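User: Some background: our group keeps a shared notebook of sequences we're curious about, and every so often someone picks one and asks for a predicted structure to add to the entry. Today it's my turn. The entry only has the sequence so far, pasted here. Could you supply the structure so I can complete it?
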Amino acid sequence: MSSRIAHIAGHPVGDGSLFLFAGPCVLESRAMILDTSARLVELARERDLFLVFKASFDKANRTSLKSDRGPGIEAGLDLLNEVRQRHDVPVVTDVHSPEQCARVAEVCDVLQVPAFLCRQTDLLLAAAETNKTVNVKKGQFLPPWDMAHVAAKCTSTGNPNVLLTERGTSFGYGRLVVDMTSFETMAQNGLPIVFDATHSVQEPGGADGRTHGDRRKVPSLARAAVATGFVDGLFFEVHPDPDNAPSDGPNMVRLEEFGAILDSVLRVHRSLPRTGK
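Assistant: Of course. Here's the predicted structure to add to the notebook entry:
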């Protein structure tokens, strides 16, 4: 198992146990977010999993100008803070510009750099300089060995709490594939590795101005990723009614099915040898 350690809100990750990033793609109504976060906290607690609740206040990389982007930074952070306080759970959200980082760090335990922005030096430095945990998603266009440069930018600030996330690689038009060897490659940077199981089943731009996807493939990809022995955390977008969600519905997991998915992944994780790499 992994010996790569970072901390999220003081909690060690990369210590051999799995942790979760989970939540809907974008912040929606207060009632929906509070209900969904409560259920996710319950599911994680029942399985002794460390959970970080995830939702975005702004989807700045939507395919179409007409797409709903979310409530914005101030309203979004207020709602994330309510989730954090009410459920005693750390929270993560995306940052899209260096100017957002300090404000987001006032509320969030993890700042997430989206895949399309993973080479933006000023953004990476600003996120890491907050001294909050930083999760950087590997660009769909980037080979896994190039994440060494991304990691070096973040850790150059003196912040050791950096995570690297695999979320699939572009394979022709509108398709992504997951290279299972990428986890070991990225783990050589000495940082915890996360697998984004739901974004990896996206079909970018596959629905005439919207991203399509196939959530049926999420469980098998998650199990396969964990079976490599190099994955420390799993990222799932989860929604009570994904078919009517404003963003990423086709690849989000149904909340009512999430417990069974976690159980199948945990069975694989428990079967792995408990030796170091």
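Suggested note for the entry: The chain has a mean pLDDT of 93. The two ends are 7 Å apart (CA to CA).
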